[in-house]
């Protein structure tokens, strides 16, 4: 009896009735338990998981770890280059945009009877990275033949630490969940061969990879190195003048100074690689596209684009205003582009802070402002002296005022950080990474723009965001 009353009390405390926006549902407060998620056959329930995650619910720690471990077992047994066949839906970068991933799965076909190939970059930038990982891993466990997940350049310790997957794991779960994810990322395959005609990877081709055998020979089971073929597959980009084949002296491979590692590859590098390996085209992700997809120059031999660049995160970083795309290959060798529009998602403060942590910086600033305004009602003479005589209390007040002035300057800075973080939305990585970047001229420009207001269009976003597309520390 007593217990029942107590639980009603908790219930009333947890759910106040006078909410500002009553139609917004409460996040799920219970953690999804192992026995509730997993069927008796050992597979997780996709519908239960999706419903729970969609409502911002978290998983019980053991439940999360079991999903990650089961997926790891499956990836570990796959070759470096997995063979996939039509019909097939190809999806590129997701970047923690869980609510858009749900749109993608609805548009791409039911995973129970549709083959999928994902080109990597499931985490970082967006704010629902754990949700993406749990759902994708659960799909892999249920339909291992249908769900193919390649590794992207963000599925590494270095990137998740500089961006925010590590922070998200620790805020929502624990270091154990983070470390288990990292060990699992180490096991993910890096390439896929579609119908023996299309080679797919996250970044691009490498000067160190001449044949498909070279891919099969790689040892992929480690943190992605900072150079070499494994790094290149995940990091390379097509050259800016890829389609301009008339341009003289184009190198096949040039160091990628935008990313700080990997290469820019040319049309000829791509064409030669395809020719040598009897392939029709390369399909890759890694770079945002305004309309979700870019078809590069066609080969005169095949009349088919040698390279297709795909991007599946709409309104990337809540800032780019881009439309995303997925590719559907049907039985009849037809390729269909499906565009994906961004959909609204729950609001999350930068670095997953709660309103009190975030608001504290504003409050500290306004409190010091208030105190200063009171002290400013008196001149320094008035504070230090009384009737022309030296006064100890006045001297102390003057010292306090100096201290508050220093505090006010510091709090003005952190208040500015708040404002910039809100204006930049998904563009800024963690505060920590952002602080070390503060001194750079291009970053100062970014911040000056962000102070003026929110980044509004695609061109502005892509220009300002370029610094964050680099490998950290390069
Ligand atoms: Mn990428």
Describe the secondary structure blueprint for this structure.
Elements (H helix, E strand, L loop, with lengths): L1 H13 L19 H4 L8 H9 L6 H16 L4 E4 L3 E4 L6 H11 L7 E3 L10 H14 L4 E3 L7 H6 L2 H8 L2 H11 L5 E4 L3 E4 L10 H6 L11 H7 L1 E2 L14 E3 L7 E3 L1 H10 L4 E4 L8 E3 L11 E4 L13 E6 L5 E6 L14 H21 L4 H5 E2 L2 E2 L1 H33 L6 H7 L3 H12 L5 H8 L9
Parallel strand pairs: 1-5, 2-3, 3-4, 6-10, 7-9, 10-12
Antiparallel strand pairs: 2-13, 5-6, 8-9, 11-12, 13-14, 15-16
Helix pairs in contact: 3-6, 4-6, 4-9, 13-15
The site of manganese (II) ion has 6 residues, from loops.
EC number: 3.1.3.16
InterPro entries: Calcineurin-like_PHP, Metallo-depent_PP-like, PP2B, Ser/Thr-sp_prot-phosphatase
GO molecular function: calmodulin-dependent protein phosphatase activity
Give a written overview of the molecule.
With 474 residues, the chain is of the alpha/beta class. It has 2 domains: 28-340, Purple Acid Phosphatase, chain A, domain 2, CATH 3.60.21.10; 354-469, no CATH class. The chain contains 18 helices and 16 strands. It has a 6-stranded mixed β-sheet with strand order 1-5-6-10-12-11. Strands 4-3-2-13-14 form a 5-stranded mixed β-sheet, covered by helices on one side. Helix 6 links the parallel strand 3 (116-118) and strand 4 (147-149). The protein is globular. Bound molecules: manganese (II) ion. Manganese (II) ion (MN) is lined by residues 121, 152-154, 202, 286. Residues 121, 152-154, 202, 286 line the site of manganese (II) ion (MN).
């Amino acid at each position: 009896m007593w217990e029942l009353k107590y639980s009603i009390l908790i219930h009333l405390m947890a759910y106040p009735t006078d909410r500002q926006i009553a139609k917004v549902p409460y996040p799920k407060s219970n953690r999804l338990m192992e026995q509730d998620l997993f069927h008796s056959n050992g597979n997780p329930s996709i519908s239960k998981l999706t419903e729970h995650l969609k409502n911002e619910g978290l998983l019980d720690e053991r439940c999360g770890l079991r999903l990650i471990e089961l997926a790891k077992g499956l990836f570990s047994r796959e070759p470096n280059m997995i063979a996939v066949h039509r019909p097939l839906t190809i999806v590129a970068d997701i970047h923690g945009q869980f609510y858009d991933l749900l749109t993608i799965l609805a548009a791409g076909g039911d995973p129970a009877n549709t083959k999928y190939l994902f080109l990597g970059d499931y985490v970082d930038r967006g704010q629902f990275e754990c949700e993406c990982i749990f759902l994708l891993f659960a799909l892999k466990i249920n339909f291992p033949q249908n769900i193919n997940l390649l590794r992207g350049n963000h599925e590494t310790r270095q990137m998740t630490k500089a961006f925010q997957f590590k922070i998200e794991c620790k805020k929502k779960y624990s270091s154990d969940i983070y470390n288990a994810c990292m060990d699992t990322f180490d096991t993910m395959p890096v390439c896929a061969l579609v119908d023996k005609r299309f080679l797919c990877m996250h970044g691009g081709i490498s000067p160190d990879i001449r044949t498909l055998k070279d891919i099969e020979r790689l040892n992929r089971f480690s943190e992605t190195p900072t150079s070499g073929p494994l790094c290149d597959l995940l990091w390379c980009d097509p050259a800016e003048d890829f389609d301009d084949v008339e341009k003289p002296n184009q190198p096949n491979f040039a160091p990628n100074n935008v990313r700080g590692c990997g290469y820019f590859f040319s049309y000829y590098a791509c064409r030669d690689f395809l020719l040598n390996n009897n392939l029709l085209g390369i399909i890759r992700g890694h770079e945002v596209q305004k309309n979700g997809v870019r078809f590069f120059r066609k080969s005169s031999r095949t009349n088919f684009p040698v390279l297709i660049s795909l991007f599946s995160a709409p309104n990337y970083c809540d800032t780019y205003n881009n439309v995303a795309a997925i590719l559907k290959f049907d039985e009849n060798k037809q390729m269909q582009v499906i565009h994906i529009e961004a959909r609204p998602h729950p609001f999350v403060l930068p670095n997953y802070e709660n309103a009190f942590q975030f608001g504290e910086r504003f409050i500290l600033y306004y409190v010091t402002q208030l105190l200063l305004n009171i002290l400013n009602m008196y001149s320094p003479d008035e504070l230090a002296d009384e009737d022309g005589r030296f006064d100890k209390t006045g001297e102390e007040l003057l010292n306090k005022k100096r201290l508050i002035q220093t505090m006010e300057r510091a709090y003005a800075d952190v208040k500015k950080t708040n404002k910039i973080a809100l204006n930049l939305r998904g563009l800024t990585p963690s505060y920590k990474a952002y602080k070390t970047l503060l001194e750079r001229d291009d970053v100062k420009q970014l911040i000056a723009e962000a102070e003026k207001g929110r980044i509004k269009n695609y061109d502005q976003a892509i220009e300002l965001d370029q610094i964050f597309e680099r490998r950290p520390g390069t």
